[in-house]
Design brief:
The protein has four helices and 15 strands. It is an alpha+beta fold. It has two domains: about 140 residues, Probable tRNA modification gtpase trme, domain 1 (Gyrase A, domain 2), CATH 3.30.1360.120; about 110 residues, Elongation Factor Tu (Ef-tu), domain 3 (Beta Barrel). It has a six-stranded antiparallel barrel with strand order 10-13-12-11-14-15. A five-stranded antiparallel beta sheet has the order 3-4-5-2-6. The longest helix has 10 residues. It is globular, with a radius of gyration of 19 Å. The relative contact order is 0.16. The mean pLDDT is about 95.
């Protein structure tokens, strides 16, 4: 199945210093990126919180960064701030190309995300060759793959470990050079296992991005006043058929406990076992 990913922005980073520039800004090792795969990268601020989560690919001598459209303006401006005297050009090419998600399809020019999903960059003239499915099918496949996103609502609220980006170094390389927030991310890694991880859930009631998760047995739940921010947070959601599904962070020690949304009386979330 193919899906037109209309909700994603696309930046092109080009110039003789493009690789060095991205190596110093992003969490993964850009030098290891080939021309056949998508590389996950966190773009962090100095405290290690993720500003944006990029799908990075090498394309026609440049680097393409794909990420949710609602972050386009702020992320483009922030990246531009750090170009300084480097030979780097950052361009918004969202309207020049079509991004197509591929689910369990073989396509010769696709960039592989994982065993199930790929990304295709094409143009308006060639888009008619694809028999497009719905964006809900793509979003459900992302939940099945535990593939997270960062939006405006969740920007600067999560460190890479909370999105499982450190597992098998999927989105974080711990032996590369410095990048914004690197010291914090590395310290959390070497101090031991992460306290919060990303899990998939389903529910019969409405779920929204940014909703907090509540668990009565959580130590953080003992403070039920204005300071309580939850035992986790919804980072990605979809209504698929008659049910709601989401990816949410949760304290690891609570992964088998009863969890509700927003508060003690909220709808129950059922963890999807992977």
């Amino acid at each position: 199945m193919f899906v037109h990913l209309k909700n994603r922005a696309l930046l092109r980073v080009s110039g003789s210093d493009a690789e060095t520039f991205l190596q110093g800004q992003l969490s993964n090792d850009i030098k290891k990126l080939d021309s056949a795969n998508v590389q996950m990268n966190a773009y962090c601020q100095h405290q290690g919180k993720i500003l944006a989560l990029f799908w990075v690919l090498r394309f026609e001598g440049s680097f393409f960064l794909s990420f949710p459209l609602d972050l386009l303006e702020v992320i483009k401006a922030r990246l531009q701030m750090f170009v300084i005297m480097s030979d780097v050009v950052i361009e918004d090419i969202t309207k020049e190309h079509i991004q197509v998600g591929s689910i369990d399809e073989t396509y010769p020019k696709a960039f592989v995300i994982n065993q199930k999903l790929s990304l295709i960059i094409t143009n308006k003239q060639d888009i008619n060759q694809f028999n497009m499915g719905s964006i809900e099918d793509w979003d459900m496949a992302c939940i099945d793959s535990t593939l997270p996103e960062i939006y405006q609502l969740t920007s600067e609220k999560l460190v890479p470990q909370m999105l499982n980006l450190d597992i098998d170094e999927m989105g974080v390389n711990f032996s590369k050079g410095c990048y914004p927030g690197q010291e914090v991310v590395a310290r959390l890694h070497y101090l031991g296992s992460a306290k919060r991880r990303l899990f998939a859930f389903e529910a019969d009631s409405e779920i929204n991005i940014g909703d907090p998760l509540y668990c009565a047995s959580s130590k953080s739940a003992k403070d039920r006043g204005a300071r309580y921010k939850g035992s986790g947070m919804v980072v990605f959601r979809i209504k698929y058929n008659s049910k709601f599904y989401c990816l949410a962070t949760l304290e690891v020690e609570l992964k088998d406990e009863a969890v509700t949304l927003n508060n003690e009386q909220g709808p129950e979330l059922t963890r999807i076992q992977k």
